[in-house]
Specification:
By secondary structure, this protein is mainly α. It has a single domain (12-180), classed as Multidrug efflux transporter AcrB transmembrane fold, CATH 1.20.1640. It is built from five helices and no strands. Helix 3 runs antiparallel to helix 4 and helix 4 runs antiparallel to helix 5 (148-179). It is elongated and about 80 Å long. The model has no long low-confidence stretch (mean pLDDT 83).
Amino acid sequence: MPGVRFRLASGPVGVMAAQNEEVRAKEVPILLYVFGSVALMCLLTFRSLTGKLLVMLPLALVSVLAYAVMAIVGIGLKVTTLPMVALGAGIGVDYGIYLYSRMQQYLREGLSVHDSYLKTLRVTGASIVCTGVTLALGVATWAVSPLKFQADVGLMLAFMFLVNMLAAILLMPALAAYLVRPVRSAPRAGDR
């Protein structure tokens, strides 16, 4: 139409639009940095591509599920929620690291994946479950907050802490059954 000029929005709406554009632009790089850092540290720590995969695959699945939960409950990806997704992934990876580091020790001793997992659960299982439930319950109380930001963050983090713990305890051993080849210990002199 003649005489019509489009101008950038101003005020709170303009600021919100600019923030949303920036969040969209930074979402993938931030998540790549988080997952790249975790992958590198797992590779350096476990010195095993399999170990890295066993920790990273459940974490990646939970991150995708977190986005699904955000969509279902109407939590948008905003300046305030993007760091929470990264934080949930960063803290959630701990469960898998605890579990696999102990499991790797038993695998190196020549135990089967099944036996390594059972021994690992006896040693660290209770502490992993206790940590996951405690963290999830602690932030779940935020979900009843009258502040929208705090309620959103409480819901997201409670979900991520709890489901990351479950994924580490249930999914990682299932993946290990297919991906891990236990180290066979050399026969002792009396066994020949």
